[in-house]
Each structure stands twice: as C-alpha cells, then as structure tokens.
Hints:
Structural class: alpha+beta
Helix content: 25-40%
Largest sheet: 6 strands, antiparallel
Amino acid sequence: xxxxxxxxxxxxxxxxxxxxxxxxxxxxxxxxxxxxxxxxxxxxxxxxxxxxxxxxxxxxxxxxxxxxxxxxxxxxxxxxxxxxxxxxxxxxxxxxxxxxxxxxxxxxxxxxxxxxxxxxxxxxxxxxxxxxxxxxxxxxxxxxxxxxxxxxxxxxxxxxxxxxxxxxxxxxxxxxxxxxxxxxxxxxxxxxxxxxxxxxxxxxxxxxxxxxxxxxxxxxxxxxxxxxxxxxxxxxxxxxxxxxxxxxxxxxxxxxxxxxxxxxxxx
Length: 267
C-alpha cells in the first residue's frame, strides 16, 4: 500500500510550538484531493461536532496557515503538506475531533481490500481511526499496522535488550501529552506506558486510566506481521485525553520505525 500520509510525534522540547505535537504529513500526490474533500467531511460530521464540542465552531480549511475546528492545527507546507496539532489543555477536544474527521477522509485514499504485499520504503505505515463519542469506550482508537511497520516491529521484538530507547521515547510521548492536557500531572514510572514488543511484533501501550491501553494484542497475531496488514485495537479509552495520549505513543513508535528504516535505506 503506497504511502498516503505519515503519522509523527514531536516532543515539546524540539517542537515549533513549545507543546507536544501530533503531525500528519500528506504526500504531495494526495494534497489536492485532501483539500477538496475535507470540507465535505467536516459538513458530514457537523451535527455530531456540535454535540461533542458543545458548540458549532468554525472549521478552517487547510488553504490557510490554520486547519480544523477553531483552527487548532498548524499548516506547514513543504515537500509534504504537514498539519501539526500542538496539544494544549484548552484545545484538546477540538484537536481530537479534527483528527477524527481527518483520518476518516484519509482512509478513503486506501484500497478497499487490504491484501498481503511486499513492503518498501514508500509504503504506508499505519491506518488510524480515532472515534470521538460521548459514550462508554467512545474514544477507542483502532486501525491497521501495515507491513513495513510490521517488519520493523518483528525485528525489534527479537532484540529485547535493544528496546530500552524505544520504550523511553514512547513513554515520554504518552506522559508529555497526558500532562499537557490535564492539570493532574503524572510522573513517568508511576505507571507502565509501553510493554516489551513481543517476538512476533505484538505490543501494548498503556496510559493512565482503568486498564486503558492500545496495541496489537498477542491473540491477534498468529502470523503475517510484516507481510500483511494486522489489526490494532484499544480498551477502556473513556476520554479524548486518553485517546490522544495513546495515539501519541503510537505516533512516536511509528516515527522511530520510519527514521530507522530510512536510515537503513540511505546506507
């Protein structure tokens, strides 16, 4: 599956905004289609947006320097169309709903049938869905780990002693976002944030909450990680804060994988 977008996480220590950021980078060949279609998706979800956000905020199209509900995203045009979502405590709900609408449109760019494929450096890494509903488990992210990402996870799973840096970066991402969005700060180490990646590539991310996690659970992976799309799911995600924290952990994991893979292809 050729790459449509990259999902990245940038720490507050190095971000342009001074806040932790989730970034969606849309490939050049899909930018026009995205810009044309996103307004239709915003209209489609406008009634639900009003219920969820408690107001009917203006949706800013990505033709300007801002994007999304209340202009919560920053548009940075370059080789790709980068939309950065700084995560502040006063804006998290608007970011979550904007991401939901954005992912829903981007999913239509993929083939309807996900089949086995030969991974390459031009492959998509992850396909994400981020629901936002005022309901029990109304914020459970889900989606697909695609083969190029899956190959990296399997390789890391076979090297448990080399996972320390990965765990540290993913843990930092989850707690940075959690602490940015709530006033009740949690220290790293007070709760698990990422388990060891299993030898077949399965993984589980945790964030503060009642058994709140996201991952490719061991019972979902019997074979095929790295050769076909594999489903990831989440449990007990009750708020947009938990959803964004877990999404940031997944984005951090994908960022590390992509950077390591690109380094390998350059040498």
